Amino acid sequence: MIDLRPKRVAVTGGAGFIGSHLVRRLLERGDDVLVIDNFYSGTRDNLADVRDHPHLEVLRHDVTFPLYVELDEIYHLACPASPVFYQADPVQTTKTCVHGSINMLGLAKRTGAKILLASTSEVYGDPAVHPQQEEYWGNVNPIGIRSCYDEGKRAAETLFFDYHRQHRTRIKVARIFNTYGPQMLANDGRVVSNFIVQALTGQPLTVYGDGSQTRSFCYVDDLVEGLIRLMDTGEEVTGPINLGNPGEFTMLELATEVLRIVGSDAPVEHLPLPQDDPTRRRPDITRAQETLGWEPTVQLVEGLERTIAYFAERLVARGLTAFAAPVVASS
Ligand code: NAD
Ligand code: UDP
């Protein structure tokens, strides 16, 4: 008998920045979507436009506790991604990565669902290999202020591969590089949202260190396309697969670009470089190109223009003309 029911797809962290974009795409293609989120760094506002969609259900739940539901696929995104948020409660961050992954893998094992982990380029730490290929094992401080996130995600990857080897769980591991776009929180603390909010409100742009450290920024629509393509692969594809935009920029270049697009002459203010801040980061996306036929299509200027337009509208709508972007602790 042909099963005509929509696919039942869970998105943990579905009220967050990337999760909410993913949820919208899944609803558009007809899936039945269950958002599982404790709203630590995500908001219901991110899903306001689809709130009444008949195929969406939103569950307030902390993934560090078990959950019993029936599913076909799980996108496991739950975890704060901004240093400001993940360092505010580092023990909970590690619990979310480890206990949260065990619970979601247990759910996948019981239901037979496919499960995709939103891992991170942070597993490469401060990389000694550049650009970063999936074979590289990384250079990570196990006891620093970023470790709850970096080591948490590394442990999550270990759990995914052990469930795959031990229980034949169908896993997919995506290593996501810095992603940006509309629906980042204004108080998120990540560099793109900080610079945009600062430029729009006429405050100095807070560049940590001398600003020569690099990142590669992927627009969220491209990233979501990569996640869906990865989930849709056959059982033999487990990853890890880098998903990111190989365009590499220094933080000073990013600041200059944001100021130019906003048309602001706000100054740059240098603040201390946070501990263990990676000096450079760029994905080698050969594996994603070959396995998924995927590569980013939105370049930085276009993506920044769209993101700046989003923040401009939101800041004005909320009267946040003097909003202070959060800055991260330096040690
Ligand atoms: P985000 O902080 O906007 O979203 C994370 C979501 O997870 C939030 O809605 C939050 O409330 C929820 N959450 C956190 N802890 C939870 C818990 N214990 N139980 C249930 N929900 C919980 O971050 P994002 O940028 O959307 O990132 C999503 C995922 O992608 C994260 O796993 C992150 O590590 C990964 N990632 C993101 C980036 C990036 O640049 N945005 C880069 C690499 C990896
Ligand atoms: N950064 C900065 N000013 C800010 C916020 C961040 O110069 O207001 C720098 C930060 O030190 C890092 C880069 O921007 O080198 C990216 O930081 P983000 O927190 O966005 O992501 P991650 O460090 O996790 O890649």
Topology:
Blueprint: E1 8-12, H1 17-28, E2 32-37, E3 56-60, E4 73-76, H2 83-88, H3 90-111, E5 114-120, H4 147-167, E6 171-176, E7 179-180, H5 191-200, E8 205-208, E9 214-216, E10 218-219, H6 220-231, E11 241-243, E12 248-250, H7 251-262, E13 268-271, H8 286-292, H9 300-317
Parallel strand pairs: 1-2, 1-4, 2-3, 4-5, 5-6, 6-11, 7-10, 8-13
Antiparallel strand pairs: 9-12
This protein binds nicotinamide-adenine-dinucleotide and uridine-5'-diphosphate.
Uridine-5'-diphosphate is lined by residues 83, 178, 190-191, 194, 206-208, 213, 215, 251, 274, 277, 327.
Task: Characterise this structure.
Strands 3-2-1-4-5-6-11 form a seven-stranded parallel beta sheet, with helices on both faces. A two-stranded parallel sheet has the order 7-10. The chain has 331 residues and is of the alpha/beta class. Helix content is 36%, strand content 16%. It contains nine helices and 13 strands. It has a domain at 8-179 and 219-244: Rossmann fold (3-Layer(aba) Sandwich), CATH 3.40.50. The protein binds nicotinamide-adenine-dinucleotide (NAD) and uridine-5'-diphosphate. The site of uridine-5'-diphosphate (UDP) has 14 residues, from helix 5 and strand 8.
CATH topology of the domain at 8-179 and 219-244: Rossmann fold
Specify the number of helices.
Answer: 9
Q: Specify the structural class.
A: alpha/beta
Order of helices and strands: EHEEEHHEHEEHEEEHEEHEHH
Outline of the structure:
The protein is an alpha/beta fold. The protein has a domain of 198 residues: NAD(P)-binding Rossmann-like Domain (Rossmann fold). It has 9 helices and 13 strands.
